[in-house]
Amino acid sequence: MKLFFRYSLPARRPSLSFLMAGGFLILYSLFFFSSCEKVDKPYKKWTPPVPSANDTIRKILIEDFTGHKCPNCPRAALTIRTLDALYPGQIIAVAIHPTAGGGLTSPTPPTYPNDYRTTIGDSYFNTFSEPSLGLPQGTINRKKTPGGQYGIADGDWTDSVNAMVHIAPDVLLKITNTYNTTSRQLTASVKCSYLNTLSGSYKLIMLLTEDSIIAAQTNGTSASNPADPSYPAPEALYYKHMHILRDCISDGAGTGLATGAFTQGTSETISAPTYTLPANFKGMIPNEQQCKVIAFIYNTATNEIIQAEEAKLIP
């Protein structure tokens, strides 16, 4: 026969602090539930506010003078990617392979069969590069250094971008591309909306670039010294070439904008002549899905670019 014993603890009176805590909990619950309102259907979806002209940002154009057989040039491309991650939506790049680069830019089959050199790219390199620097080098909004040169070493790009990226823009650009995949004809226009009143003479240029071209690139001087550690060294056979300059779809020197004063709050639209995308660029068939139109406005007196924009050929 099993015996069970029940032991009861002596009854204890609730403490004053316990009673006060319980009372507070009850009062809080009453307040919380009474303050909630029932939301009737249909529920309204939240819509983020549309940014005004004052919310626009300055965009920086980097002209990257480079070469596919230049050992240090992937380092400059890496700097562009780093700046793009730091300032998303504000960095626009154009990779220019100048003929003056000699053996660093010329094709040498079978490893380097592509020829990325362009007439307009040569013109820009001859005008804005710094001869003492070689490759890689570039311009940042074509702004002159205190020493009076446009081209600067890639190691100075970050400081140069940091100095101007936060400055409020004077103009907003909007690119509209209409592309016919059958005829390969492109009609591009740029709406220039002036956020501030400007004086002087300005021109607008439109370029065509192509991204994601997979091809060989020299990367550093040895396997242990890559210019871009994310690729094999000293030769990356499947390098992703970005921002490759293909052509100029406007006048190379630019289309003149309204002369005299540009009044705050006004706008004008500039259209490029109808452009036919070639079936190939020196034997390279362009990927329409990877092509972009680059537009920028510059001051004709200083050559400094005051705003840039980009838009896909096929949105």
Describe this structure in words.
By secondary structure, this protein is α+β, with helices and mostly antiparallel strands. It has a domain at 55-169 and 203-248 and 282-312: Glutaredoxin. Helices cover 17% and strands 29% of the residues. Strands 7, 10, 11, 14 and 15 form a 5-stranded antiparallel sheet that branches. The chain is globular, with a radius of gyration of 30 Å. The N and C termini lie far apart (88 Å).
Shape: globular
Structural class: alpha+beta
* Overall helicity: 10-25%
Overall mean pLDDT stands at 86
- Beta-strand percent range: 25-35%
Radius of gyration: 30 Å
Second-tier CATH architecture of the domain at 55-169 and 203-248 and 282-312: 3-Layer(aba) Sandwich
Poorly predicted runs are 1-21, 24-55
Order of helices and strands: HEHEHEEHEEEEEEEEEEE
Distance between the termini: 88 Å
Subunit organisation of the chains: single chain
- The total strand number stands at 15
The CATH topology annotation of the domain at 55-169 and 203-248 and 282-312 reads as Glutaredoxin
CATH class assignment of the domain at 55-169 and 203-248 and 282-312: Alpha Beta
Main β sheet profile: 5 strands, antiparallel
Number of helices: 4
